[in-house]
């Protein structure tokens, strides 16, 4: 039997080492592929929580008795010439101004309204016609009837609608109340949605408010004939409350 030489032993060991390394590499990959779970991914899943947002749009409204009234009062005239109509309107306007002054209406509360002089529109008539109106602002709405009656007695031919509204300081206060009402409605709606979805509200992330709207009340005056009668009772015009509306959009965060 021929004994292996040193060269033969080295070749045998080298061949045996390559085979061993290949076998170990295959074993190293085997446990990872058979498990199929990523330790890193499992850790991230355990630390995450369910969260999100709920966005609600809601409105709020408050009502208040009006504390400001604007009355449209004017005179009308007809004549054969534009000059004659203009003169008659000027006389009537002066009488109205004197009446407003006697009633204690501040001059700044009497604004010039529409002034028109034009050929008569009636086909069968010739000449001119015109009108001159004033916008009278009253801070005491209970005096509206008194002012109308006095103006008609002074020669007013036309009384338009009466606009009941709110003074600026009242608007500012009610604006906040309307926003508060809108936010309260938004909170209620968001709480209902969260309860329905089985989640807990965690806080507010965003709030947007829209324009706050004040809705004046317009009342028509139809008692000119009665006001011309000295025996007629004083004119009374009652107005419904003025409404102030606000809209909000609120975004809430939640945890589930």
TrEMBL record:
Chain positions covered by the region annotation Disordered: 24-67
Protein origin, superkingdom: Archaea
Biased composition (Acidic residues): 35-47
Gene3D superfamilies: Protein of unknown function (DUF541), domain 1, Protein of unknown function (DUF541), domain 2
GO term, biological process aspect, one: DNA damage response
Pfam families referenced in this protein's UniProt entry, alphabetically: SIMPL (PF04402)
Protein name per UniProt: Uncharacterized protein
């Amino acid at each position: 039997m021929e004994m292996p030489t040193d060269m033969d032993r080295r070749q045998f060991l080298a061949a045996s080492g390559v085979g061993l390394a290949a076998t170990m590499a295959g074993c190293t990959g085997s446990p990872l592929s058979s498990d199929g779970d990523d330790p890193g991914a499992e850790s991230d899943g355990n630390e995450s929580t369910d969260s999100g947002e709920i966005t609600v749009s809601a409105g709020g409204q408050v009502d208040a008795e009006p504390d400001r009234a604007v009355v449209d009062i004017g005179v009308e005239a007809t004549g054969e010439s534009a000059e004659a109509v203009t003169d008659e309107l000027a006389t009537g306007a002066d009488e109205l101004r004197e009446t407003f002054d006697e009633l204690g209406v501040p001059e700044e509360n009497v604004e010039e309204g529409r002034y028109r002089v034009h050929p008569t529109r009636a086909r069968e008539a010739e000449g001119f016609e015109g009108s001159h109106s004033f916008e009278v602002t009253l801070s005491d709405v209970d005096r509206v009837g008194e002012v109308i009656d006095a103006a008609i007695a002074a020669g007013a031919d036309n009384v338009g609608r009466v606009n009941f509204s709110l003074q600026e300081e009242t608007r500012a206060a009610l604006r906040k109340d309307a926003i508060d009402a809108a936010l309260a409605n938004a909170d209620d709606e968001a709480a209902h949605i969260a309860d329905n979805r089985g989640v807990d509200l965690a806080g507010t992330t965003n709030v947007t408010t829209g324009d706050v709207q004040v809705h004046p009340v317009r009342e028509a005056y139809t008692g000119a004939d009665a006001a011309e009668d000295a025996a007629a009772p004083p004119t009374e015009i009652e107005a419904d409350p003025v409404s102030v509306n606000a809209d909000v959009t609120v975004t809430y965060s939640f945890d589930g």
